[in-house]
Amino acid sequence: MHAMQYETILPADYDMEIIRKRVATKGPLLDDFPGLGLKAYLMRERDAGSPVNSYASFYLWATPEGMNSFLWGPGFQGVVNDFGRPRVRHWMGLSYAEGPASGAAPAAATVLRVPVPEDVEPARFVAAEVARPVEPGMVASAVAIDPSRWELVRFTLWEQADPQASGDRYQVLHLSQPGRAGLRSGRHW
Prior knowledge:
By secondary structure, this protein is α+β, with helices and mostly antiparallel strands. It has helices at 17-26, 64-71, 74-83, 122-130; strands spanning 2-10, 36-44, 53-61, 89-98, 108-115, 138-146, 151-158, 168-176, 186-187.
């Protein structure tokens, strides 16, 4: 599994209805994309308490071929054409878990990025992060790492928004999940 995210920060007065309409028309195009575990179409709004307006996508790729096919194909080029070329973050998958609300359509997501402390053994830190228990209201969660920056990311889909959840909080506008059932649960090492 590979995790990937890009986010476009939009002007404070941007009409976020444009993003809602974009996702309503383009979101279903990836509902059967080969190699894709899931893609969450995410949005943050200043009017809803976010520090910024943004449009973001978070992916869990079941195969590197799927990820490459998307990045070098017409889907990502559409993002580039409409918003400019975003910085694409990606992480190696460490774990995936379905939560107690796995049958629900997620309304919210959180993305928590954590630096791996320099004074901690990386394997112990990662093992502790992966071992965190599932929480009520959790639809699914993944942990991944970028060892070039020693940055861990925890991506969680929630049945409802949780104001206590740590990390950047997003509204989920659409969830494409053609390969979600095939994402391997548990530790990936």
